[in-house]
Design goal:
465 residues; globular; eight-stranded mixed beta sheet; 17 strands
Length: 465
């Protein structure tokens, strides 16, 4: 593990730490990355260390949650967390995503603007070695992407040359840098050639001499005195123990962070509420466009129903064009003339969708997607042919996707304890030396993938201390 030395429970609890971080996935580790280097930091990870080779042989299992619905919420416990298994899509949020209340009277505004977060987006993109370009007219940038975009699929090459709303898809699947190049085989959850950025293969960015790692222990609660956090309770095979710290940062995920705060007696009205994620919808389009042969699994995306969309009426929708031939056409010599697109709609967070505790364990309540999200998808389906610059022969509605594997809400950002759980620097309103990191703090739901934004927010929070 290099300079991030593994430590025993006895050694962890026999000293007082400057900071204890719960979890070791993207939110947690980019917070660590942004911290001053002179601090003593303990990273507490619920799972163990599972090498990339071991994950290829045996994929990491999902966490299971008690719930009133069958909707899956994807979480994995191991060093690196969900970074081991994400797809690697890294679009930024649009500037409008941070002001949906002001601009559209929908959801809530963030307490930070795109312009404030932009330098941290740039820094995270450098660490992740993002491949991208060609979207600067939609998303203003202070610096170019670290590496050029992947070679477009044949369909993306046509789509991107006929309109400025089809753009190359930014990606943490390598197209240059310290990792080997993406092999474009479409098996991205656990990349067989380790080309996708993970905490495991980029851990040199997070290691330092005064950072230690406690594996196979779960942060369960925070002990406070007079409104100040003093220690955390951790659970392992050896029972419950106490570890002292001057500051606690929760970087598990939106479900576990909320559960920890609930067990700790936090009482903000929004705590545990507004659980949400984007609504995904798959379609197939037959058209006289030769497809596939691009440099990675998704080489382009469409902003036709997202950029400058009227989100007061319906959800914004991002289009992903897949370069993975799940099903080809049957007609001779036309096998590749099919596009597989995914429509990804933002969601309106509802307080009725929530994380609660029953007998000290998590219970999820989710009541389905909003009509607002469905209206956005229906509008995109109705008008999609206009976004394809050739004669569309047929559009087949495959249907909803069970999950986007994103967990949002539950510790949302707000100006006061009455309106949110954390402030703009991700400190909880109730206890200022406790932070909640990750996409749980998002007060609105962009159609864009959340990973780059939550990572940038973690660096911003660390630098704000």
């Amino acid at each position: 593990m290099g300079a991030m030395e593994q430590i025993s429970l006895d050694d962890a609890r026999n000293r007082k730490w400057d900071i204890v971080i719960a979890g070791s996935s993207l939110a947690a580790m980019f917070f660590l990355y942004g911290l001053p280097r002179n601090l003593s930091v303990l990273v507490v990870e619920k799972g163990g260390f599972v090498s990339h080779e071991e994950q290829i042989a045996t994929p990491l299992p999902y966490e299971s949650f008690k719930s009133n619905s069958e909707k899956p919420w994807i979480a994995r416990s191991a060093f690196g967390g969900n970074s081991n298994c994400w797809w690697g899509q890294t679009p930024r949020f649009l500037p409008a995503d941070f002001q949906t209340k002001t601009l559209y009277n929908r959801a809530e505004d963030w307490l930070i603007t795109y312009e404030e977060l932009e330098p941290y987006y740039t820094e995270v993109e450098q660490v992740m070695e993002i491949a991208g370009g060609g979207s600067e007219h939609i998303l203003p940038r202070s610096q170019p992407f670290p590496f050029p975009p992947h070679a477009p699929s044949r369909s993306d090459a046509i789509l991107q040359n006929t309109g400025d709303l089809w753009v190359p898809s930014p990606s943490a699947r390598s197209n240059g840098g310290s990792r080997g190049l993406c092999c474009a085989n479409g098996i991205c959850h656990t990349c067989p050639v380790d080309a996708k950025f993970t905490i495991l293969n980029a851990r040199q960015n997070f290691e330092r001499e005064n950072v230690h790692l406690l594996l196979n222990h779960e942060v369960r609660a925070i002990r406070t005195e007079a409104g100040t956090a003093k220690s955390v309770e951790v659970l392992g095979s050896d029972g419950v123990s106490e570890i002292k710290s001057d500051l606690v940062a929760l970087g598990a995920n939106a479900i576990f962070n909320a559960a920890i705060l609930l067990r700790s007696g936090f009482t903000a009205p929004a705590l545990g509420r507004y659980l949400n994620e984007q609504a995904g919808h798959l379609i197939e389009i037959d058209a006289p466009i030769q497809n596939f042969y691009g440099g990675t699994s998704i080489t382009g995306q469409g902003y036709h129903f997202y950029h400058n969309a009227d989100r007061s009426q319906r959800a914004a929708v991002l289009i992903e064009n897949f370069n993975v031939p799940a099903a080809t056409r049957a007609e001779k010599n036309r096998w590749t003339e099919r596009l597989t697109l995914k429509l990804i709609a933002e969601e309106l967070p509802s307080p009725d969708n929530q994380v609660s505790l029953v007998d000290d364990e998590v219970l999820l309540r989710w009541n389905g997607y909003s009509q607002y999200a469905q209206d956005g998808i229906n509008y995109a389906l109705t008008n999609l042919a206009d976004a394809i610059p050739v004669e569309v022969e047929s559009i087949k509605d495959i249907g909803p996707v069970a999950t986007e594997a994103h967990i949002l809400g539950t510790t949302r950002m707000g100006g006061t304890k009455d309106t949110g759980v954390v402030d703009r620097e991700l400190k909880t309103h109730e206890v200022s030396n406790v932070l909640s990191l990750g996409s749980g703090v998002f007060p609105s739901c962009s159609p864009a993938n959340p990973t780059l934004t939550l990572s940038a927010m973690s660096v911003f929070a660390a630098r704000s201390l």
